[in-house]
Amino acid sequence: MTVQTQPDAALPDPADFGFSVIAEDDLPPELLALAEQVRHLVEAVAHTDVEREELVAARGMVEALTERLNARRRDTTTVLKEESPQARAEYSTVINAVSGDTNPAAPPLSLERTDDGLRGEVTLSGAYQGPPGAAHGGWVAALLDQALGAAAGAAGMPGLTANLNVDFHEITPLNEPLSVEARVTGTERRKVFVSGEIRHNGQVTATGTAIMVRLAL
């Protein structure tokens, strides 16, 4: 097994494969603000204990807004193109369930390059609860899966998760800043080996390793 430290050449443009592509700068800030407000709405709905009349009224308003927003929809497979002066263009689905800024279901997790991989911070609200006061293990695994896949992509080796192993060391708390890191540890033919961890206040709460199978582009 070898470790690849240099990224491949520029990735193919998803538009060449029939996908709709939108540049990061073309996402309306109003849409990002709306998605963030809906995240607060989701948590409010999950925790509310208001009277039934209030619930009926709120449902009516949300139903009207849903119909209004559905007047124009992007294709589910729309791809977001992210560019920076220091690196080549990278691509991800706009409504990614973990990192999609326009997806209210996403925390969202934002990752940046480091010397050996990627690092980001995220806070999971009460909407992501599993055991009392703790993040659901499925969402902990989802954060790691996203970071591990992104690390492979950032190294120029995008692929799909073939195997994911997650070890839970401590409870991952809600409403607290979490650090997520990931890096490529080796390659073997089309296999890309990656590892990562989640930390809270410097303490590792979960670790993950995965095998990504490179896409044949």
UniProtKB/TrEMBL annotation:
Keywords: Apoptosis, Cell membrane, Cell projection, Cytoplasm, Fatty acid metabolism, Hydrolase, Lipid metabolism, Membrane, Transit peptide. Gene3D superfamilies: Hotdog Thioesterase. This is Acyl-coenzyme A thioesterase THEM4. InterPro entries: HotDog_dom_sf (IPR029069), THEM4/THEM5_acyl-CoA_thioest (IPR052365), Thioestr_dom (IPR006683). The keyword Metal-binding does not apply. It is found in: Cell projection, Ruffle membrane; Cytoplasm; Membrane. It comes from Salinactinospora qingdaonensis. Its main location: membrane. Residues 133-205 form the Thioesterase domain. The keyword Membrane applies. Signal peptide: none annotated. Transmembrane segments: none annotated. Belongs to the THEM4/THEM5 thioesterase family. It comes from the Bacteria. It is a peripheral membrane protein. It holds the Pfam family 4HBT. Its EC number is 3.1.2.2. It catalyses: (9Z)-octadecenoyl-CoA + H2O = (9Z)-octadecenoate + CoA + H(+); hexadecanoyl-CoA + H2O = hexadecanoate + CoA + H(+); octanoyl-CoA + H2O = octanoate + CoA + H(+); tetradecanoyl-CoA + H2O = tetradecanoate + CoA + H(+). It is an enzyme of class 3 (hydrolase).
